[in-house]
Design a protein that fits this description.
Helix 4 runs antiparallel to helix 5 and helix 6 packs across helix 9. The protein has a two-stranded antiparallel sheet with strand order 1-2. The longest helix has 38 residues. With 274 residues, it is mostly helical. It is flat and about 65 Å long. It has 2 domains: 96 residues; 178 residues.
Length: 274
């Protein structure tokens, strides 16, 4: 279990570093393009372009080095685990849980851990819904050219899409415990936390004029951390350990899913404006 915990933390580190490297390099590349061709104001600063470009390349090189080093550590840990399992007498010491378990097969501690995870997922949806309603009533104002009804529907769609993964996880955890379900229970909040780090400065700037709105950033962040911790504890109690490669695949899937929602919302807003 300790070896799996170390491998899982390394895998989460790989996902975090890869996401940071990707977003930072894309941002620096965009800054370089704006410096050469002109930004929103139209002013060009070609002398700054090479510095942004070199910064993007440096971030990529350092990121590849860091992820490769952590990846080698994961491979070594997996090889060590495979060797220990194949050693004489290891079969009697190791307990290999099946990939799918019914609720009746869980121990009382494992059942309690799953119930806590389901409650945390449900609480995340309820708390986010309450904060969304609060923001619509007190923080957001309808832009000119939009009716209040259309503006409400415009924000409701992305909100529902953002919380569909949590609803699916609740259904899957209550029906059967699958290794894939536990994998996404870790990676959905982890990816949301990663993306929230990059929106921190923008959101903080906006909510400097609306201090109560800081709740919209901090509370969902704390709820995602709670879900992540309880998912980790549930995995330890149950004994169904996600594979490192499945964690990376799940992180990539959820990153593109949430990014697609963000991009789609921006395009809809641009085309819907009069």
């Amino acid at each position: 279990m300790e070896r799996w915990a170390a491998t899982t933390l390394r895998t989460l580190g790989v996902v975090l570093i890869a996401g940071l490297v990707l977003l930072t390099s894309l941002f620096l590349g965009l800054m370089s393009l704006c410096a050469y061709q002109g930004g929103i104001s139209g002013a060009k600063h070609p002398e700054q372009g090479p510095w942004y470009l070199m910064g993007a390349v440096l971030v990529l090189v350092l990121g590849v080095f860091a992820t490769a080093r952590m990846g080698r550590a994961i491979i070594r840990a997996s090889a060590t685990a495979a060797t220990s399992v194949s050693a004489p007498g290891a079969a009697s010491r190791a307990v290999d849980q099946p990939a799918i378990l019914n609720a009746s097969q869980l121990s009382p501690a494992g059942r309690k851990a799953v119930e806590n995870l389901v409650l945390a997922l449900g609480a995340q949806i309820l708390v986010s819904t309450g904060l969304w309603i609060f923001s619509q009533l007190h923080l957001w104002s309808t832009p000119s050219g939009f009716s209040s009804h259309n503006w409400l529907l415009f924000f409701l769609g992305p909100f529902i899409l953002y919380h569909i993964p949590y609803a699916v996880l609740i259904y899957a955890l209550l029906k059967k415990l699958h290794r894939l379900t536990l994998t996404y229970s870790l990676m959905v909040p982890a990816v949301l936390l990663l993306q929230s780090l990059f929106s921190l400065s923008v959101v903080a700037y906006y909510y400097a004029h609306h201090p109560a709105g800081i709740l919209l950033l901090i509370v969902p962040w704390l709820m995602d951390i709670l879900v992540l911790v309880l998912a980790y504890k549930a995995i330890q109690q149950i004994g169904i350990h996600p594979k490192p490669w499945s964690l990376i695949v799940a992180a990539v899937v959820m990153f593109f899913y949430f990014s697609a929602i963000h991009v789609l919302t921006s395009f809809l807003y641009r085309f819907a404006r009069p």
